[in-house]
Amino acid sequence: MIPWRWSFRRKLLLLLFTAAVVPLTLITIFVYSTFQREFNQLLRTQFSQALLLQYQLLERYFESQKALLRSIAAQDLLLSEIDRATEGRPFSENIIFISLVSVLRENPFIEKMYIVGNDGRVWFSTATDEIGQELLQRREIQKAANFRAPYVGEVTVTSLKRRVVPIAAPLIRKRDNALLGVLVMEINSSVVHSILTAGDASVRDAAPGDARPQSYAVDAEGYLLVNTEGLGFTHSIQTAPVRNCNAGPRRDRYGVWENGKGEEVVGMVWCRAFDDFSTALIVEQKKNEAFRLLREIGITTAALALLIAAATFVAARFFARAFTAPIEVLRRAAKELGRGNFEYRVTIATGDELESLAEDFEEMRQRLRIAHQHELFLGKLKSEFISIAAHQLRTPLTAIRWTLEQAVEKPKRVDVQLFRRALATVIHMADLINDLLDVSRIEEGDFEYHFQCLPLEPVVRGRVAAHEDRARAQHITLSFVSEEAPLPSVRLDKDKWSMALDNILDNALKYTPEGGRVEISLKKESGGITLTVSDTGIGIPQDQLDNIFTKFFRAENAVSFQTEGSGLGLYIVRKIIEAHGGTVRVESREGEGTCVTIHLPQVVFCR
Question: Which of 91, 177, 329, 456 is deepest in the core (most CB within 10 A)?
């Protein structure tokens, strides 16, 4: 896989741009799709309204023609003459003819009218040359006779190649309700043109903008009955909506298809029937005209989206630069740290997570600087440790060497006292090495503590008891005083606390002459527990008290009184007491004695 070698700024720019443009694109598509759907629904609704008006006009016309034919068929004069004719009595053919012709004169769309008798033949007709024709098989005649009501038939082509719509009504004798025959009226199909033209204004308002939809109707065979432009076709139109209507009962449809001229249009078709007269009412408009507004909106939306995308790109570049600039600062700082420059400060004021990151980085730099300084300190400490250890151990090792040489050179004259001094020297060396190792662990942070809740008095009493034999041997009075009331338990590392107390007691016994006193007291006061170790020893000069807790420090009178010593005991004591949350102080007067006071605050009490 080829690695992506773009800079982080370019990657961030691409990410920001993509994160902004992708939702924008989806929103644009969603908005346009929603508008397109609503626009189609608007066209559909408006086309439906136009077709509804046309259908209502056409329906009312056929109902009115049925009513007209019914009223003509119910005329007494016409029925009486037809009744005479059926019974073979004398009748006036002229009266019947005049009745039918008068209707034709008042209704220009009526092609002709005729009467069919019960034998299926034409008895009377305004077209006299058709009298005697056999018409019983005509469906509308049968339906009118059977239903005893006017009935609209399917489109019929006359001998003059005209397409007409026949309407038949029964002739019923009133006295006995007998069927005398059927009155038929043939209406020229062009009447549909006149009817739909009446609603043409509504059709033309069916689409927004400058669109001009066309409406027309075709019969069951696909022949055009009318259109809004007055154009006619001499051949059958077999477009998708026409086939849709002819495929079965009422199959209304909205969609896109090719019209009879081969043009792509959008429109709606209603499949309707008036008795046997089936028609497809169609409203259609050229697709490019109908969707012109939608197309313009799409172009405008796309242009706006491109403009927003361009603005987003510029904004993304700005934010990418603003975001990566602090990262560049951090990168330079990291490089400086890698070179060992721990003084290179990082300052970023962005008020966000990057500023927090810079603060964390600065905190890390401070820790690294401290760690580096600590490392330098440890290096110095190791050198100092080696130097001091070599200096402190040289004298006892020389003494031990001299003792061993005497034992080798004069084996028969070995003095036991000499070996005793050598043994004491070895013990002193072991104590010195332990002190040095403890100090090293303390300063390196490896002096581990294991705290637990313990009563302090038994621990102190035990350490005092451990030094009683030494005190008796040195003829020193060692006493311990504690309050009668039980003291609270404290968080304590028993081993480390014992080490600190042993160092204090060891100093007190070491620098107190024979016949002196060492007193230990333990009591609760000042919101905590106070432990005091006082002696009647040589004391410490006032000008040297401030250095008493310093490593390897020994007062001048202490060195004169007791040559052996590392000067590390009180330093270790202070570190242990502070780790327990307490404080330690020393009060002393040279030649009068020393008092060491340890105070543990109430916060270290166990709850």
Answer: 456
